[in-house]
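One-letter codes give the sequence; each number marks local geometry. A record appears below:


***
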Amino acid sequence: MTDGIAKQISAEMRFFISAIFFLVIFSSAAAYDPLDPNGNITIKWDIMSWTADGYVASVTMNNFQMYRHIMTPGWTLGWTWAKKEVIWSIVGAQTTEQGDCSKFKGNVPHCCKKDPIVVDLLPGVPYNQQFSNCCKGGVLSSWGQDPLSSVSAFQVSVGLAGTTNKTVKLPKNFTLLGPGPGYTCGRAKIVPPTTYLTPDRRRKTQALMTWNVTCTYSQILARKNPSCCVSLSSFYNDTITSCPNCACGCQDKGNCVKAGSKLLQKSGINTPRKSNAPLLQCTHHMCPIRVHWHVKQNYKEYWRVKLAVTNFNYRLNYTLWTLAIQHPNLNNVTQVFSFDYKPLVPYGSINDTGMFYGLKFYNDLLMEAGPSGNVQSEVLLQKDQNTFTFKNGWAFPRKVYFNGEECLMPPPDSYPFMPNSARQNTIAFSSLISSLIFLLIVIQ
């Protein structure tokens, strides 16, 4: 009897440990991007000077993600103080709430909340409120697209805190919205102090204390359904493989607008809502974004692809949009028309991923749904005779990401195949066999 109970407890313990292991692995994988394995947003706190009751710190946010940026209305950063700290002043940003500062007389802090929420300032604020790399409305470019614009910073004066390296307590529970959910931030970790060069580059100084916070993105945490889909076509097949039905979730048809509807003529229809709720054009896939890949032409040593990105959301313009594509022939891109292109080599020796994005001041803004709601380009690729083929869907991409979100691909058996492919030959052969059997039955 005792042995049976022990075996049962042992089995339950094994199941419990396995479940915990699975959850840990799943949660880690959810934030892992195979096309950008080292991508993250790092928040760095540098204590620059001590004050009577605390310190002045420079907070810098670096977006090290190759093709995922933070678009308008921008980032929102939050944390929880370890003690009873307050923010006396802040330059280059502001907190969304002041909190209860009734116990202070005379000099009132900027924020007294235990868990402050900080947002970036808008462009055009007075110079005395600005800080280096601030005041962009919270917009952060991706590292691959524009490294100089992938940094945001502000300066904060903290009171009722420690005044030495040993008495300062690190903030906890960091949160980052960019602008919606999806980012998970780790614990603050003390790192070697940041070093700075003076303007004449002849003297090196360093921060008094530095800690880092790393935030990673997970599409699973951001939304339960994809936000984009992919359709395919080619010159060698009349079939157009459209996006799968309800690719971005089946929604109530009353929440979408048909193209050409009189409702679109009303004023304010394109105004974004506080909830960021989209107003989509009615389609069978119900996605805000559709990416179309068309195999256009075949030359002796090259082949040409046409790319088109269409916006079906009437309430959102996509600024600084990016398109990341994985395809084995992207290692031989010869020319890209109308878009900028940059190869992504996450694993060093494998060059099968590239990033497309709009030309500055030309088509880097994808307008809302309507006549101007699309951007197009063509890509010329050189053939690698050892690997190149049009058969079995080789000419179509393996993965497509729009603004860092993986798009839903059609099922492989629906791809436009070559007319003489094995798939169609099998159908023709089976039809011939059926006809012969029918003929033999009739003759007998």
